[in-house]
């Protein structure tokens, strides 16, 4: 196998493979096989496979692959979302435009990413639902702040969030 710029040339198959796809597949494989608690450890695992990647590139790849850190380990978002409703402990209203969501330790970021991905497309580039009243979130370890548009019924938004994570 020969690496050249952004391609890996597989001599036996006489074809080019995009390193982005190859590295993404490798990241997914490693995360499925091992409990990775630190990006540096993941970086070392990738490099041990003969692939050179920088820390900043790895961070960008993890974001694109929707990898989150939950319970101290890096996981793909779908695996993290499976326990999201259980992770929600309570949602408090903080008028006029805030909700405060309390989660189990380590779950706030996964919940925030799921909510941010529901903002309509004209506000963000990714949209899977209609949370038009949602402007964004700020997450810590076990608490996140949800920022709503002015005039939003916080009680209805709370119910919508609870329903979203219950499905």
Description:
- The protein is α+β, with helices and mostly antiparallel strands.
- It has two domains: 2-65, no CATH class; 82-166, Gyrase A, domain 2.
- It contains seven helices and nine strands; from the N terminus they run βββαααββααββαββα.
- It has helices at 19-33, 39-48, 55-64, 77-81, 84-87, 108-116, 154-166, and strands spanning 2-4, 7-10, 15-18, 67-70, 73-76, 88-94, 98-103, 134-139, 143-148.
- The protein has a four-stranded antiparallel beta sheet.
- A hairpin with a 2-residue loop joins strand 1 (2-4) and strand 2.
- The radius of gyration is 19 Å and the shape is elongated.
- Mean pLDDT is 78; it is low at 1-18 and 124-128.
Q: What separation lies between the terminal Cα atoms?
A: 45 Å
Number of strands: 9
Order of the strands making up the biggest sheet: 6-7-9-8
Subunit arrangement of the protein: single chain
Give me the CATH fold name of the largest domain: Gyrase A, domain 2
Query: What is the helix tally?
Result: 7
How many separate structural domains? 2
The arrangement of helices and strands along the chain is EEEHHHEEHHEEHEEH
What structural class do the secondary elements suggest?
alpha+beta
Arithmetic mean of pLDDT: 78
**Runs with pLDDT <50, length 5+?**
1-18, 124-128
Fraction of residues in helix: 25-40%
- CATH class membership of the largest domain: Alpha Beta
- In CATH terms, what is the architecture of the largest domain? 2-Layer Sandwich
Gyration radius, to the nearest Å? 19 Å
Which outline best applies? elongated
